[in-house]
Amino acid sequence: MTRSKRIQPVVRIAENREQDAARVLGESMKQLEAQEQRLQELTLYRDEYTRRFQNHAGGGMAPARMQDFRAFLAQLNQAIDQQRNVVERVRRESEQRRHQWLDQRTRAKALDKVVERYQREELRDADRREQKLLDEFAGRPRQDRSS
Question: Which residue in 7, 112, 115, 134 has the fewest CB atoms around it within 10 Å?
Fold first, then answer.
């Protein structure tokens, strides 16, 4: 069995690991997108709630109602802060997943190059053997069939 054939299982394992890492990266990127979307929704809701609060407060508002608005606004701000933390955590995880995928991709590409080099060497060796046989055949004296 040739070296290029013997290394094929290792190449397949590296390719499978790269594909797995790519899948995990894709899932991580989707999760990051979803968390960023949630942060945007919370921010938009808070901004709308603040506008409504200002509109109601401008026309006069009972102190208890104003206190409720402010308490809810504080809760929204806290939720936004928490969501920012989630986004940052997921972003870091996604970046780690990207590095892991790049590492696996680099390994797979390196193994592909090794296989290509082995195949070139094997082809060159086969060409040399063939040339040697042709040279030996051409160097043999011809036997005269008429004798």
Answer: 134
Please report which residue ranges of 7-147 form alpha helices under DSSP H. 8-58, 63-139
140 domain residue, yes or no: no
The amino acid present at 22, given as its one-letter code, is: A
Judge whether 14 lies within some domain.
yes
For residue 86, pLDDT over 90 is answered with yes
Asked whether residue 138 is assigned to any structural domain, the reply reads no
Q: By residue range, what is the domain housing residue 56?
A: 3-115
- The structure's pTM equals 0.74
CA 25 – CA 10 distance, rounded (Å) = 22
Please identify which residue in the block is written with the tokens 């390994």: 107
The Cα–Cα gap between 104 and 16 comes to 9
Judge whether 56 lies within some domain.
yes
Q: 107-127, pLDDT tens digit by residue?
A: 999 999 999 999 999 999 999
pLDDT, residue 142, reads 65
How remote is the C-alpha of 81 from its chain's centroid? 28
